């Protein structure tokens, strides 16, 4: 009997994203066909290129910040808060953390300590920036959707204002770009050679991302705080009746979400650019898409982030073959849209199925629903 | 063909099997045209399956449905609507920010357009059937009774001649019930047929022309209201002798369990919702609060639970808890059976065992040192399911899949499992069938025997009188009268609930109430 229920409960969360990806494939096939390109060879090309060791390493690199960004968004989603501001939170966090880490007065501080300091400062700044939206919500009832969007713009302005040579920025050698001071080598996190067949490593920060995923799973699924948070998301009035302090929960969830958001810019900071540059952007919105695709599930989002990384990497080959790589963007967009629709549909069907099954098993009390 | 007019609805030999189980078997019901036909039965007896068959949501495996004499086979509700069948659901499906006219027209724009013609049609329906509603009014400004009339108009507008009403009185106060019944009689006088699903036997007896009893998926009796008493009907429903809510011996002690002094609650707009309420519940005492809904009961409960800011003091078993949070109050032994279980008592999408944790997530067996102990919570949920007879195939089922009665049993079981000192029970048996009702009463009585204090709020006067040791009447946020449950009759209580204790005659009640309202407004204005 237990197994019978399990499939009713477990299948839909799997069917929805798979169906959505299928729909995305179909739609992009149509787009390709309409554009006069061959459909299957194109997919084959992407698959071939995307599965090369170098591409896999690149996919993992891309997936790392995406995953962090998705977890940040998901923390909010799980309690019904739409933190659209991950983008602003991580940019301002990465800027300030990178500026601190690269500042000349830090020269005497050992590298490991500086790494820890950068991570902590990034989390604090991200949390603080998100905290502004939380504060506005609990004191003035301002929707966090509106305030975080506005805070994104303000963060953008702030970053532009601070990243000038007379403030936090320095002129990068041989280029017009202004960045924060380059971090000394002992503050870099070296790549991990986990993909064989290529000399390209993977961001060492991927370990942190994985740990964040585990922490997210543990916090939400195993702690009292997580239960309160989920209850507040599932039924706010019932959560209040159960003793959850709604305002404190909003603040806690936003701070947590912002703290994780603060990490989003760090894989590139530690592993690639070693300084904050304006070129890093838009990761916050990708995170929202991946959180939707992965249904806020720690493993679902990991798959989502990997898929995103794979698609973006494999898109690079398309231009070389004269196929617009925007096909991939269409695919990504359709997948997110379809997964939202598909999830609504499957959860509706699950609900029906469950109700029917319960109805069956309690209609005749004698055999208590034991059936083949 | 037939000499006399055929029955409006004739169900013969209806059988519906779900894999391995028979939900309906060999059901026979004949509903005469222009009558109110009640279908009564416990939750899970198969009433809703049957109605879903009639409404085209399920297809029967065997048997025949005849509408006005001709056999039909519906494959969708649209076909049922086409055949003149309309369903008025228990939970209203209205958009608050739209007008009555817009709500009625929504989804049926093709019938009479969306303009003056539609409004005229609605007015015509209101006039013809005596369903007084202003088509221009905003739904959010309407009371519950009005909203229900809008729902009825909605189905009539779509051309229904046969109306299925699913537990229509569950959300109504006594006066509104009377009004509804008046409306129903007028509808049948105009030739419409009404199928009325209920388990409130007094109501069924007073309004129905014929009654069919369903038990365990099959029709066990068809009776006329004149021939049966409520007790006989209930016995038919549950198939055994029925318990009554009467509390046998008194267990009231002199130790106060909950003391409330000068409790005052203001609305956001500054209106007084609860006005200086004083009450004491002793250990082993059930204190019943009688009152027409909306006189401050919900606010009183929420203030005691700490969910709503209030002035005054609250003491629980000697501890002053006025400044405590809801969580701390619950941990200290304040149990809560909320009035609206969907809003305040359950996480509908979550499995039963998570719902078992809700409200007690900080306590054993649900958690320890900040971490959830899901194994222990699951095990204890199994126990509650068993002990409180929650009919479910398992504890992994989401709460929404359970019937209302079974959800309620889970909530009562959960609250009782933490040895509360005081239980705040708002309508503990609302929407619950007779069998479950008796079980819930038993649990409350047992806990009361063990020294539990209970604040009981109920719209069911029999329940209030039967279960309470002390009765207070609430009217406009004040406790205006006391009654002795041993001697008071439901009629006397009903009269007191309308404020008759304050005003000499109900006739002047409206005027004095208005005067009182003005008096209240005036000093506030001066202060400001």
UniProtKB/TrEMBL annotation, chain A:
Instruction: Quote a single Gene Ontology cellular component term.
Output: plasma membrane
UniProt KW Transmembrane keyword: yes
Query: A single Gene Ontology molecular function, please?
Result: transmembrane transporter activity
Looking at the record's lineage, which domain of life comes first?
Answer: Bacteria
Chief location: membrane
Membrane topology qualifier: Multi-pass membrane protein
Where does it live in the cell?
Cell membrane
Short name of one Pfam family for this protein?
A: BPD_transp_2
Q: Which UniProt keywords apply?
A: Cell membrane, Membrane, Transmembrane, Transmembrane helix
Against InterPro entries, the record matches this protein to: ABC_transp_permease
The regions listed as transmembrane in this protein's record are 66-85, 92-109, 115-136, 145-163, 202-220, 250-270, 276-294
Q: What PANTHER family does the record tag this protein with?
A: ABC TRANSPORTER, PERMEASE PROTEIN (PTHR47089), GUANOSINE ABC TRANSPORTER PERMEASE PROTEIN NUPP (PTHR47089:SF1)
**What is the official name of this protein in its record?**
ABC transporter permease
From TrEMBL, chain B:
Q: What Pfam family is a match for this entry?
A: ABC_tran
How is it placed in the membrane, per its record? Peripheral membrane protein
> What would be one Gene Ontology cellular-component term for the protein?
plasma membrane
Q: Which PANTHER family match?
A: CARBOHYDRATE TRANSPORT ATP-BINDING PROTEIN MG119-RELATED, GALACTOFURANOSE TRANSPORTER ATP-BINDING PROTEIN YTFR
Keyword ATP-binding (UniProt): yes
Q: What is this protein called?
A: Sugar ABC transporter ATP-binding protein
> Per its record, what are the GO molecular function terms?
ATP binding; ATP hydrolysis activity
Cellular localisation: Cell membrane
Q: Which SUPFAM superfamilies match?
A: P-loop containing nucleoside triphosphate hydrolases
Give residue ranges for domain ABC transporter. Answer: 9-241, 258-501
Keyword set includes Iron: no
**Naturally occurring in which organism (per UniProt):** Virgisporangium aliadipatigenens
Keywords from UniProt, A to Z, are: ATP-binding, Cell membrane, Membrane, Nucleotide-binding, Repeat, Translocase, Transport
Query: Matching Gene3D superfamilies, A to Z?
Result: P-loop containing nucleotide triphosphate hydrolases (3.40.50.300)
């Amino acid at each position: 009997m237990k197994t019978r229920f399990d499939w009713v409960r477990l299948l839909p969360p799997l069917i929805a994203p798979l169906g959505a990806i299928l729909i995305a494939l179909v739609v992009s096939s149509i787009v390709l066909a309409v554009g006069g390109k061959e459909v299957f060879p194109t997919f084959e090309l992407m698959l071939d290129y995307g599965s090369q060791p170098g591409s896999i390493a690149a996919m993992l690199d891309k997936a790392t910040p995406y995953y962090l960004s998705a977890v940040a968004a998901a923390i909010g989603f799980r309690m019904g808060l739409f933190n659209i501001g991950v983008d602003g939170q991580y940019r301002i966090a990465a800027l300030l953390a990178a500026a601190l880490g690269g500042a000349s007065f830090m020269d005497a501080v050992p590298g490991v300590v500086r790494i820890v300091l950068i991570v902590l400062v990034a989390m604090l700044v991200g949390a603080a920036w998100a905290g502004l939206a939380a504060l506005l919500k609990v004191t003035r009832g301002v929707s966090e959707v509106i305030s975080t969007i506005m805070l994104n713009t303000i963060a953008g302005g702030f970053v532009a204002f601070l990243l000038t040579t007379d403030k936090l920025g320095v002129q990068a050698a041989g280029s017009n770009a202004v960045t924060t001071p380059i971090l000394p080598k002992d503050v870099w996190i070296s790549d991990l050679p986990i993909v064989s067949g290529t000399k390209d490593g993977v961001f060492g920060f991927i370990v942190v991302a994985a740990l964040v995923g585990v922490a997210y799973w543990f916090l939400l699924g195993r702690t009292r705080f997580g239960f309160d948070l989920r209850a507040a998301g599932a039924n706010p009035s019932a959560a209040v009746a159960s003793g959850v302090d709604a305002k404190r929960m909003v603040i806690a969830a936003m701070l947590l979400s912002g703290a994780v958001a603060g990490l989003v810019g760090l894989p590139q900071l530690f592993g690639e650019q070693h300084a904050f540059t304006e070129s890093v952007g838009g990761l916050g919105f990708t995170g929202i898409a991946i959180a939707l695709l992965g249904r806020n599930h720690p493993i679902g989002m990991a798959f989502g982030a990997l898929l995103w990384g794979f698609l973006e990497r494999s898109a690079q080959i398309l231009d070389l073959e004269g196929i617009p790589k925007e096909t991939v963007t269409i695919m990504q967009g359709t997948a997110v849209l379809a997964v939202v629709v598909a999830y609504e549909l499957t959860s509706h069907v699950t609900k029906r199925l469950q109700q029917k099954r319960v109805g069956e098993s309690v209609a005749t009390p004698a055999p208590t629903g034991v059936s083949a | 063909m037939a000499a006399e007019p055929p029955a409006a609805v004739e169900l013969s030999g209806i059988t519906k099997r779900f894999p391995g189980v028979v939900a309906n078997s060999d059901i026979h019901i004949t509903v005469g045209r222009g009558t109110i036909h009640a279908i009564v039965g416990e939750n899970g007896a198969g009433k809703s399956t049957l109605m879903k068959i009639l409404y085209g949501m399920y297809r029967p495996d065997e048997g025949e449905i005849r509408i006005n004499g001709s056999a039909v086979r519906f494959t969708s509700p649209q076909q049922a609507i086409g055949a003149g069948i309309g369903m008025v659901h228990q939970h209203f499906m209205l958009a608050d920010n739209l007008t009555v006219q817009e709500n009625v027209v929504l989804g049926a724009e093709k019938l009479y357009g969306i303009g003056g013609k539609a409004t005229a049609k609605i007015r015509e329906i209101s006039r013809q059937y005596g369903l007084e509603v202003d088509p221009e009014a905003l739904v959010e400004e309407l009371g519950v009774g009005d909203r229900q009339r809008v729902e009825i108009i909605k189905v009539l507008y779509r051309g229904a001649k046969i109306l299925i009403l699913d537990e229509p009185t569950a959300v109504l106060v006594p006066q509104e019930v009377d009004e509804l019944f008046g409306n129903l009689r007028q509808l049948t006088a105009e030739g419409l047929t009404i199928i009325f699903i209920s388990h409130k036997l007094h109501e069924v007896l007073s309004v129905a022309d014929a009654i069919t009893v369903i038990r365990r998926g099959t029709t066990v009796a068809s009776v006329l209201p004149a021939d049966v008493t409520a007790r006989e009907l209930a016995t038919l429903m549950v198939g055994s002798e029925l318990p009554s809510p009467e509390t046998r011996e008194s267990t009231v002690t002199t130790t106060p369990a909950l003391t409330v002094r000068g409790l005052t609650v203001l609305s956001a707009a500054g209106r007084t919702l609860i006005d200086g309420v004083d009450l004491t519940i002793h250990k082993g005492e059930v204190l019943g609060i009688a009152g027409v809904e909306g006189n401050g009961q919900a606010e009183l409960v929420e203030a005691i639970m700490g969910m709503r800011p209030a002035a005054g003091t609250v003491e629980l078993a000697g501890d002053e808890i006025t400044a405590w949070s809801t969580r701390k109050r619950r941990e200290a032994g304040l149990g809560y059976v909320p009035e609206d279980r969907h809003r305040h008592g359950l996480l509908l999408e979550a499995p039963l065992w998570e719902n078992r944790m809700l409200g007690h997530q900080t306590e054993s067996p649900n958690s320890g040192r900040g971490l959830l102990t899901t194994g222990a919570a699951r095990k204890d949920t199994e126990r509650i399911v068993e002990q409180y007879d929650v009919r479910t195939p398992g504890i992994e089922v989401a709460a929404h899949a359970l019937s209302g009665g079974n959800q309620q049993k889970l909530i009562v079981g959960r609250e009782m499992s933490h040895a509360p000192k005081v239980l705040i029970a708002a309508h503990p048996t609302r929407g619950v069938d007779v069998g479950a009702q008796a079980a819930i009463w038993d649990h409350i009585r047992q806990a009361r025997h063990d020294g539990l204090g209970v604040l009981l709020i109920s719209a069911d006067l029999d329940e209030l009188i039967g279960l309470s040791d002390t009765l207070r009447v609430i009217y406009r946020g004040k406790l205006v009268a006391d009654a002795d449950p041993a001697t008071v009759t439901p009629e006397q209580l009903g009269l007191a609930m309308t404020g008759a204790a304050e005003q000499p005659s109900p006739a002047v009640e409206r005027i004095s109430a208005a005067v009182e309202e003005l008096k209240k407004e005036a000093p506030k204005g001066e202060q400001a």
